[in-house]
Design a protein that fits this description.
Number of domains: 1
Distance between the termini: 6 Å
Structural class: alpha+beta
Strand order of the largest sheet: 1-2
Radius of gyration: 11 Å
Order of helices and strands: HEEH
Strand content: 15-25%
Number of helices: 2
Shape: globular
């Protein structure tokens, strides 16, 4: 699975994106047109199964 990370403390554009999605806490995951906050292994497994 290919993924990209962004440090919202160092990347103003990444911070703006997360804020526009309505989040005030990290981590935020954006994948398959969906997004969520927090570590959610079940959702990660579902996306990994599609890859």
């Amino acid at each position: 699975m290919v993924y990209e990370t962004a440090d919202v403390t160092a990347d103003a554009s990444a911070l703006a994106t997360v804020q526009q999605l309505g989040y005030a806490a990290a981590p935020v995951v954006v994948a398959d047109g969906k997004h969520w906050s927090g570590f959610q292994p079940t959702k990660l497994d579902q996306i990994g199964a599609k890859a």
